[in-house]
Specification:
By secondary structure, the protein is an alpha/beta fold. It contains 14 helices and 5 strands. α1 packs across α3, α3 packs parallel to α4 and α3 packs across α10.
């Protein structure tokens, strides 16, 4: 596996960001950001097809942190990957009006694909996004133009997968054979109040196999090469959705709480200085090395170039994206925005006129009726 050394450095520095942010506000959940750091390193440092300079790129891969309580996992990696989330916002974790609220909120933070926090909700959203992607591809892809071919990834924990909404959505995903969906199970044998075996004894991986998922288990969830290989197999799978159980150590990096229920929340933050030293980090808080920054800056540039050149070359006189298809896409967007305006009319943070105005404005982009 290429870039393994720099990705391991990034994983440990992402751990440091989570420790420092949660220690600074004396609130948050350290367990997942520390335990799944290598998963984040492979996703954001190698696997995800995204464009941090354009977080609304239509054909981007979607990553959903279903276990939204571990939000510093997502904020740390979005910052490192080069999204519009400066270090100052990481330092403002859980502060009023910051871009880094306690749980990820769609529309508040660049790169956050949906609001999560209620356990299992992110799994449901991921299944819905995978279905939407398949529907969009069926409507708009042609033999000459593959407009939609992105993947959807969800990172979930024991609590997420204990919820009925996750089970129902996953069952549907298996039934529909959504081969563009991968669920990553942060399997650390710990829940908030106790070890997981106090509340569950089922084989989660066998349950997902029964839904119709391709399943595999990574015994060492801190092995970058093993994670990378599993994600490559998931992306290559054309038959069914993928479920990867990744055995991790919750709170890894803070020996005093690692592997225990005490590592789930902010309890380990009081050991911040010793943890930073154990991870090989300097005394400087919120530390990111120049080498890690340079690696992600280069990757951001490469991803942006790949996204902008993602459409296949076309012969002279042929439209890169047929305007008739764009008309149809626009009609779907208008319908979505109008429905969204109705749904949002009772939300105090978004006045009714805003989504309606967006919908009306979008009508002006292409003439109606479609002339093509």
């Amino acid at each position: 596996m290429q870039n393994q050394e720099i990705l391991q450095q990034a994983a440990d520095q992402a751990r440091g960001l989570a420790i420092d942010a949660i220690h600074a506000c004396s609130s948050g959940h350290l367990g997942l950001p520390l335990g799944a750091a290598e998963v984040g390193a492979v996703l954001f440092g190698k696997d995800l097809k995204v464009d941090p300079s354009d977080d609304q790129w239509l054909n981007r891969d979607r990553f959903i942190l279903s276990a939204g309580h571990g939000s510093m996992f997502l904020y740390g990696w979005l910052h490192l990957a080069g999204y519009d989330l400066p270090l100052e916002e990481v330092k403002n974790f859980r502060k009023l009006h910051s871009k880094t609220p306690g749980h990820p909120e769609y529309g508040e933070t660049p790169g956050v694909e949906c609001t999560t926090g209620p356990l299992g909700q992110g799994v449901g959203n991921a299944v819905g996004m995978a279905i939407a992607s398949k529907m969009a591809a069926a409507h708009f892809n042609t033999s000459e133009h593959e407009i939609f071919n992105h993947q959807v990834f969800a990172l979930a924990g024991d609590g997420c997968l204990q919820e009925g909404v996750a089970a129902e959505a996953a069952s549907l995903a298996g039934h529909l054979a959504l081969n563009n969906l991968t669920i990553l199970y942060d399997s650390n044998d710990v829940t908030l109040d106790a070890m997981a075996d106090a509340s569950q004894s089922e084989s989660v991986i066998d349950r997902f196999a029964s839904y119709g998922f391709a399943v595999e288990r990574i015994e060492d969830g801190h092995d970058l090469a093993a994670i990378s290989a599993a994600l490559e197999r998931a992306r290559a799978n054309t038959e069914k959705p993928t479920f990867i159980e990744i055995k991790t150590i919750i709170g890894k990096g803070i020996p005093e709480v690692a592997g225990t229920s005490a590592g789930h929340g902010e309890g380990g933050a009081k050991f911040a200085e010793a943890a930073r030293q154990g991870l090989g980090l300097p005394e400087e808080t919120f530390y990111v090395s120049d080498e890690v920054r340079a690696f992600f800056a280069e990757r951001k540039a490469q991803l942006g170039e790949a996204a902008s050149s993602g459409m296949p070359p076309t012969p002279p006189g042929v439209l890169p994206t047929p305007k008739k298809q764009l008309c149809l896409i626009q009609e779907y967007l208008v319908m979505y925005l109008l429905i969204y305006s109705i749904v949002c009319k009772n939300l105090p943070r978004m006045p009714m006129w805003q989504p309606v105005q967006l919908a009306v404005r979008s009508l002006t982009i292409w003439p109606r009726p479609c002339p093509y």
